[in-house]
Amino acid sequence: MLSSIKAKLIGSFMFVVGIIICFGLVVILKTGDVSRDTVTFVDKYWATADLLMETRITFDEISHLVFHPPANMDQEKFIAESTTALTKMRNQFADSALDSASSIKITAQIDHVIAALAKPVRLDGVPASKMEEADGAVAPLLKTLETSGETALTNTVWEGVMAFNDILITNDPDEKKAFDQAIAQIENHPAFASLSRVYPPFKQKALTVFASANELIEARNIFNESGETLAELLGTAEGHFEGNVVDPATTELLSALKEMQSILIIGLLLTAVIAMVIGFIIANRMSKPLKQTAEMLESMEQGHINRRLDLKSNDEIGRMAKAMNSFANSLENEIVVPLQLLSQGDLTFEVHPRDDRDLLRSALSKVAADLNETMAALQNAGAQINSGACQVADSSTTLSQGAAQSAASLEEISASMNEISSQTNVSAENANQANCLANDARQAAEEGSTRMA
Length: 453
Hints:
Elements: H1 5-67, H2 75-94, H3 100-122, H4 126-148, H5 151-170, H6 175-187, H7 199-301, H8 316-343, H9 359-424, H10 428-452
Helix pairs in contact: 1-2, 1-7, 2-3, 3-7, 4-5, 4-7, 5-6, 5-7, 7-8, 9-10
């Protein structure tokens, strides 16, 4: 059980940190899965997609050079480099992420492309060289025709020459039909017999041009067909791979990333809510007793000391509440009660200071001791005053008796004087004066007697 505010705060902080760590571990584990999926996607799926695209691009470059070779191209070097590049890709397809059926078909077709590559490359310059030889055989034939003056036949020969020249430009096998028509016209011409010596070399070399050209065209067609088949297989494999492998893997990867993001957001929100709840609880548990303590102190400031704090915790606030209650009890029982007795005149109370630093109880104890000493002195003075008063009372009694006797004597004197006045006819004025003196003496005696009493 946590017994201090510091321990409670640390415990709450560690609880929140523990929640964050738990969510962090979940995120770390999820990140590991996402990382592995990403590595697989990049290393395997992306590499396969890149291999498909690279194979297509490489074949297009090779195909372009096969059909449009530069004049100074090293044929054997080109064949070797192209074969190496295609063989490398073929081997990569065996380890790719493609399904086995597609991989087998593509590797087999690459083998066909490699097999069809060398022949059109090597045959590329043959028709041209054959055409040069055929062109060399044309000159004797034209010279013979020029001598005979056969203009129409000469034009037919030129049609045949244009046919085997055009086939190298158009690669159109129909050029052979045009040549055959020209040859038929030449051979059926009446003047053909004059060409018996120079015509056979021309025809033979011209046919060689067509033969080499057709062989080149056929070789290129075979290579082109194998390339088109390869491109079709690559397109089919790419579409199948993208739809059945890459897209689901991408969707799964994005889903995992979204799930990880959701875990992070939920973790942050839950941690924030828990932290707010814990903070509210701690703040409420701290503010409520502090408010009660403040209200108790305000009541004590107004002189109300009967209020107590009802707090059961064992932390600093609980100890403060116990100390406040103890202070209030001590103030009520050891300070206020003695003061109430003192106000009633009861000085029998006793106050015992707890130590030398207990200034309040020490002062109240000193006040009680001083008041007791003062009351004892007052009692002694009262006894002395009482004794003096008794003596004064006795003296007053004696004086009163003397005054009474004096008054009686004065009355006798007054009576005598009245008698003498009546006898001797003293004037009324003297008698009145004597009466006044007698009355004054009597009043003085009475007042003195009253004061003495």
